[in-house]
Amino acid sequence: MKSSDKKLVAPIVITILLFIYLAVFCIAWLYEPIPAIWKIIGSIVPLGLIGASIFVLVERIKEIRSGEEDDLGKY
Questions:
Q1: Which pLDDT band holds residue 40 (cuts at 50, 70, 90)?
Q2: What pTM, to 2 d.p., does this model score?
Q3: Cα 19 from chain centroid?
């Protein structure tokens, strides 16, 4: 296992755990006995956070593979 591969493990594991947590939250929100509009609004927020976390993971993987360890090198 390369050094860069070891650095990918933590972001991937964190994203998977966050995805599971938000997916369970979203599914649980759909089973609440509330009006449909609130179910939709309550589900959009976790789905947006899932999308954002996947986007951040992809960006982090690109940074690690390019050799950029942190964002301070850009400034």
A1: confident
A2: 0.76
A3: 6
